[in-house]
UniProtKB/TrEMBL annotation:
Regions that span the bilayer: none
PANTHER family named in the record: MERR FAMILY REGULATORY PROTEIN (PTHR30204:SF97), REDOX-CYCLING DRUG-SENSING TRANSCRIPTIONAL ACTIVATOR SOXR (PTHR30204)
Molecular-function GO terms, alphabetical: DNA binding
Keywords tagged on the record: DNA-binding
Highest taxon in the source lineage: Bacteria
Database matches in InterPro entries: DNA-bd_dom_put_sf, MerR-type_HTH_dom, MerR_fam
Location of the HTH merR-type domain: 13-81
Protein name, per record: DNA-binding transcriptional MerR regulator
Amino acid sequence: MSISAMDVRADSLLSIGGLAALTGVSPRSLRYYEEQGLLSARRTPAGHRRYDHEAVDRVVLVQRLFAAGLTSTEIRPVLPGMVAEEHRTGALVSALRGYRDRLQQEVARQLDTIDILDEVIDEQDRA
């Protein structure tokens, strides 16, 4: 179940605080996402940000991509195709493959490091 499927009224818009509470992402980060073109908000007549409920899943996806090591500059062009099938192109898939390959190489390096640490620990335990 996605976070947006939580008990939230479908016809209401979220404030920045509401979106922050649902996603665990600070309002400051949400404003940064908007500045970087990763998230968009409607504005009330008073200028307050309002988000639709699809923003919850979008923020969670952006967080996962950041955690995977992508930058906002790398996320911006691929995000539309990740959330809407009509924006998927060969170039998008190629870019995603490149990011995936980079992540696989990083995971392999980390696994090698774990092996080295295990060897040292095992040697110490035998001593």
